[in-house]
Specification:
The two termini are 43 Å apart. The protein has 854 residues and is of the alpha+beta class. The chain is built from 16 helices and 49 strands. The protein has five domains: 16-183, no CATH class; 187-305, Sandwich (Immunoglobulin-like); 347-557, Rossmann fold (3-Layer(aba) Sandwich), CATH 3.40.50; 592-689, no CATH class; 695-850, Chitobiase, domain 2 (2-Layer Sandwich).
């Protein structure tokens, strides 16, 4: 169970804030700069003034000034702007105009040097003096930054952005932020973070898994440390719970200021009776300079569950070696024929909901025969957008297909829970996708992107895509950017445009549910889905839509009612053979890395990346029931047929080319180069579709994340800490920070290189051995035949690394250029960053308009 960080009396006292704003801001635009004040020197060079005014179209008269705001405790706000008529502004831009930005500034003094753990919640970033830190957008309260401050005067500058998707679209907007500020005791080298403990539930007196993790933060200023032991105690002294670390060695080092997730295994010989205390105390021992220190214990509440009644928590190792969890709920009937098992119900929750929350686990009607997997909604970058891509296999299927990772030796074979979970491994590809709100969007996403895994979709109050939910119309950069370049950038997130992929829903039973008075995700989103899907199958009533008059975004029994139960049980009892019933359909995709097969056709590569790819399929049978497949392609370079359909056809024509069906078998692709006909090829060794695509794919590629930082450069090291922090906060992931001298060979991992070849010798080594037309010096950036030498120019780009991994290089011709580039390292979804971007100094105020090339 996650608990918020303890609210202490803030140190120092921060009560009288200076507020400057509001200024326009676009959805997800902040990381591009796009601060209008930068045109006048920036917030660091602007002081409070009762008379100074700055242009802003949001307020009457077109000018805004400073105001004072008294705060109480650790909460600041709401920020109120009397000269702004929000309802009037909405006449032009709708609720997207409520996406404003402002600055909150305050100074304080310290009588001596001190160290703190600091975090700001409900904001994106903040400055302490000149150092930029990442805030906690979603108020998760699971991380804090270690800050060492000298004696004297200091200034906080908080960039406040009213994120409508997080805070809602109220008029006027009520923007509030909080902060956590805790002094670090000098005797403590590290802190075990109670809010980041992950352990399985107890099922019928056994752990429902043996994999666990706890986050530990190094609060020292210079020395790194390692966790060398973990001990678990309870009030029951007669029961021993054994804990053993899973990682050791140099790769387990925790650098100064860093938070790392420490994986460990648990086991016990005795059964765990219901009378056993549910509060476990975890004691972590760290080693610094060959000396051991045991940290204060942290508590974690373990829940005793019954598999036949309760939703319970299982744990498993993810592709980056971090420990994740899912909630599992058994059906009412636990017996079934292994030859015809029911599907898995994949249930996705809305933004801001904890997967293990009883409010969510108890919200779904229990199926008669199907197991439900309630997933950790966001593992990748964000709390309100799903980017499963190929990781779907880890979140939907792996907990059930890797039983040794689900239960280890913890659940006895006589347990009904274990029996049922092992039966689940027999059919890892049969699912009903369902969800509410952002989870409803997720159900649409999984249905449109992994259609051959779906036998049905039930989506409640799901929006179509991020650009429709809160339009990007308010972007500052839109007034400065080249439309062609902007199109390239926007294409980097087009793979998540569910409406663009609706053709893939053909043949899948769909029921959509929403409240008629939903003002959070208005009903038009669901209606749009239905219209598009109906058009593709030429059936005006194909998608079943239930719009409940008078209901809003959520109501009791929204996923526990007759409509829901009837639909689910119908397709559990009689799952439709969608693939074999298709006769006329269209496969649509933008990025093969984030798409599965449709109708048994899996696209491996597009001719032009980020452009729409389509295959129209028409199946014709002759009098002898012999099938001929006619395929017409657009922007497709290579694809294959899955095992599910290899026996369905006798003849194949692709764009007029006749393909011998006997030549198609597992591992064979159809490929077409420019000016050539389609031909069969075997899979090229070393080429893998999962590590292609925009920069954020590094979080979805296989292997851990390693950040390579130049030695002796405090500024670059600070940025390395921010990248690691963001992956931990928004992705629940773990990262290793290393210096070049600590590494002989480059690791078999996903790597982020900070600094160009002249600053980071490992960047030089990597680029020297890579096929790249990008070169970096302190005088210029060269991309192909183009040279960028303006001061403040930076670059961020990715390269393939070995077969399954990615590498990202972030550099600049000076520190200003590096700063603008490193800010584009993806934190959350919706950031329009392609696979390479050349940044420029004008991004500070022009946003994407200051990008020089992409």
């Amino acid at each position: 169970m996650q608990k918020p960080l303890q609210k202490l009396d803030p140190m120092p006292k921060l009560s009288r804030w200076q507020i400057l704003g509001p200024f326009p801001a676009g959805m997800r635009e902040q990381d591009f700069g796009a601060d209008p004040l930068e045109a006048y020197g920036g917030i660091h060079n602007i002081s409070y003034s009762e008379t100074a005014r700055y242009p802003s179209e949001l307020s009457d008269g077109g000018l805004v000034g400073w105001q004072m705001l008294e705060s109480h405790g650790s909460t600041v706000g709401p920020l109120v702007f009397p000269s702004t008529r929000w309802s009037m502004n909405q006449l032009a831009l709708g609720w997207a105009v409520n996406q404003f930005q402002a600055w909150a500034v305050i100074s304080f003094s310290l009588e001596r040097e001190k160290s703190f753990r600091v975090q700001f919640h409900s904001i994106g970033d903040f400055y302490i003096d000149q150092d930029l830190y990442s805030g906690d957008w979603y108020n998760l309260k699971t991380t804090a930054h270690v800050v060492h401050l000298a004696k004297g005067e200091h200034t906080l500058r908080v960039r406040v952005v009213n994120e409508i998707r997080i805070f809602g679209g109220s008029t006027p907007p009520k923007s509030i932020f909080e902060y956590f500020w805790e002094e670090i005791e000098s005797s403590i080298p590290a802190i075990a973070i109670e809010q980041q403990v992950n352990m399985p539930d107890i099922i019928d007196s056994r752990f429902a898994g043996h994999l666990c993790s706890i986050a530990v933060q190094n609060v020292l200023q210079k020395a790194d440390l390692r966790v060398v032991a973990i001990q678990i105690t309870t009030q029951s002294t007669d029961i021993a719970i054994n804990a053993s670390l899973r990682n050791a060695g140099e790769e387990a080092a925790i650098m100064p200021g860093q938070i790392r997730q420490i994986p460990f295994s648990i086991s016990t010989v005795e059964k765990l009776p219901p009378t056993l205390s549910s509060i476990f105390i975890i004691h972590v021992t760290v080693e610094i300079h060959n000396e051991n220190h045991t940290l204060p214990g942290v508590s974690f509440e373990i829940h005793h569950k019954k598999a036949e009644n309760d939703a319970f928590r299982i744990t498993f190792e993810d592709q980056d070696k971090s420990i994740q969890y899912a909630m599992v709920r058994s059906p009412k009937t636990l017996t079934f024929s292994p030859s015809t098992p029911p599907p898995i119900l994949v249930a996705l929750h809305g933004a801001g909901v904890e997967t293990s929350s009883p409010w969510w686990t108890g919200a779904l009607s229990r199926s008669e025969k199907a197991w439900a997997s309630l997933l950790l909604l966001i593992r990748l970058l964000d709390r309100d957008e799903i980017e499963y891509a190929h990781l779907i296999q880890y979140y939907v299927y792996r907990p059930f297909t890797q039983p040794e990772e689900v239960h280890g030796d913890s659940i006895g074979t006589d347990q009904v829970c274990l029996m049922s979970l092992e039966l689940l491994m027999l059919w890892s590809k049969i699912c009903i996708f369902e969800g509410h709100s952002n989870g409803g969007q997720g159900a649409w996403y999984l249905g449109t992107h992994f259609p051959d895994r779906a036998i049905a979709v039930f989506a409640a109050a799901g929006y179509t895509k991020i650009q429709d939910y809160v339009p990007f119309t308010g972007w500052i950069g839109g007034s400065h950017s080249d439309p062609w370049l902007r199109g390239i950038l926007e294409s980097s997130i087009a793979e998540y445009n569910n409406d663009l992929h609706v053709s893939n829903l053909a043949g899948i039973p769909i029921h959509a549910l929403m409240g008629g008075d939903d003002d959070n995700v208005p009903p038009l989103h669901t209606r749009k889905y239905a219209r598009l899907a109906n058009e593709y199958v030429a059936d005006p009533e194909y998608v079943k839509v239930t719009e409940v008059p008078g209901e809003g975004h959520w109501w009791n029994k929204i996923l526990d009612n007759e409509i829901y139960s009837t639909f689910i049980e119908q397709h559990v009892e009689n799952p439709k053979d969608v693939i074999n019933e298709l006769e006329d359909f269209t496969v649509t995709l933008i990025n093969p890395s984030g798409s599965g097969s449709k109708g048994g056709i899996f696209v491996e590569q597009l001719s032009t990346p980020y452009r729409l790819g389509r295959i129209h399929v028409k199946i014709v049978k002759d009098d002898q029931n012999v099938s001929t497949w006619y395929l017409t392609t657009n922007n497709i370079r290579r694809f294959r047929f899955t095992d599910q359909v290899l026996q369905r056809f006798s003849n194949i024509r692709v764009d007029g080319s006749i393909i011998a069906s006997t030549s198609l078998h597992d591992g064979v692709f159809l490929e077409k180069s420019d000016g050539e006909d389609w031909k069969t090829v075997t899979h090229v060794s070393g080429l893998d579709s999962t590590n292609h695509g925009p920069l954020h794919r590094i979080y979805e590629s296989r292997g851990p994340l390693v950040i390579v930082c130049p030695r002796g450069n405090d500024y670059y090291y600070h940025k390395a800490l921010q990248i690691a922090h963001d992956w931990n906060l928004y992705g629940n992931g773990d990262a290793q920070i290393i210096m070049p001298a600590e590494l002989g060979d480059l690791p078999n991992a996903n790597i982020v290189f900070l600094g160009g070849p002249e600053e980071n010798e490992l960047t030089s080594m990597f680029l020297r051995d890579s096929l790249s037309d990008i070169s970096i010096t302190k005088q210029e950036l060269r991309v192909g035949g183009h040279i960028y030498s303006t001061r403040g120019s930076g670059i961020i780009f990715h390269q393939l690394w070995r077969q399954y991994h990615m590498a990202i290089i972030i550099a600049g011709i000076d520190q200003e250029g590096f700063t603008s580039a490193v800010q584009l390292m993806p934190k959350r979804t919706g950031l329009i960053i392609s696979d390479w971007v050349v940044t420029g100094p004008n991004m500070k105020w022009q946003g994407v308009g200051g990008i020089q090339a992409a």
